[in-house]
Structures are given as structure tokens and as C-alpha cells.
Amino acid sequence: MGDFDPVAHVAMMTVIFQAIARMPALGLSFPLFFASGYLPFTFYQRMSSFMAGTMKANKALLSYPVVSPLDAIVSRFILQFMTDALVAAVILLMIFELGRCDCVYGHRRHGRGCQCGRRAGLGIGTINIVMFARFSLYEQIFGIINRPLFMISGVFFLPESLPNPFRDYILYNPWCTLSCGSGRASTRNTAQTARQGLCY
């Protein structure tokens, strides 16, 4: 069931913010607004976590001489990517079909955002395989630093809504660009959407 945690996250954020505000920060659909920001971020977060545990999870398999560490890395990458892609497809299908969402959805930009999240997760996760093995303290430090990323990565807000200089500071966070520049759902006119994209 842990693979479908993003479904629960999007649903929970939708319920909470619908009780607080009448409209999302962009567009008309709360679920689509949160999903378009959360899915690219969760591609990174889940991929990096899954890849970092490659060696520990495959100790028995790696004892066979025909299995190399690269085999384990590639297989786990493919497995996690397919899982995340399926979960993302289920979430978006539920939003558009069950929620009767009639919004302008930048699926290409969103797809690029998810691809960037997947690649970033692969890179960070592969680095962490080595770092976790060599430095036990690093694993705890990384966990502490990585935990608040969700709160400052533009998943449930738009950086352009923040006053300066906070907006400029938060855009130094690459995960914020990943979440916000990946194709937010919008029902605004083309000029407004273009200006929104230029912010990232």
C-alpha cells in the first residue's frame, strides 16, 4: 500500500486546502494543482530513497558471481520508475474522470518534470549508495536535510506569490523549480500561463 501514498497525500492536501481557501493558487482544481506539483517531487524522493537501499536489499542476490552491482541498480531503477509512473497515471485518471476536471493541463511539461525528478532521484540515490556505506553519520544527516524539502519545494504554493527577497531565495532550491516548473494545471489565459512559466 506504500506505493499508493501519493494518492493519500494529494487527497489529504486537497481536503485541507479546500477547507481553508476557495480557489487554488493556480487554476480551478485543487487536486490537479497539488498533483502537478507533488508528482515530480515524489518521483525524486521515492526514487532516491529506493536506489539508496540497493546494496542492502540485494545482498543475497549480489553473492552470485553473475550478478553485478550495476544489474541491481538498473533493475531497481526500472522497477521504481514503472511503479511511480503507474501511480501517477492512476492519480491523474482519478482527477480527470472522477473529479470531472476540465482544466488546461500541461502534460508535456509535467512529463518533463517527472523525468527530471526520476533522473535526480537516480543520481542522488546512486551517490548515497556509496556515501551511506562509507559514512554512517551521513545517512542521518541526509535524512534530516531531506525531510523538510517537501515544505519548501513549491508543492502546495507558488514561489511568485511570496514577497521578495524570499521568492528569490526559495528559487535557489532546485526541487522548487522541479515542482513548480513542471506544468501546473491552469485555466488562465495563455498570456498568464506564459508569464507563470517564465518565473521558473
From TrEMBL:
The lineage of its organism: Bacteria, Pseudomonadati, Pseudomonadota, Alphaproteobacteria, Hyphomicrobiales. This is Uncharacterized protein. The chain crosses the membrane at residues 20-41, 85-105, 117-135. It comes from Sinorhizobium psoraleae. Keywords: Membrane, Transmembrane, Transmembrane helix.
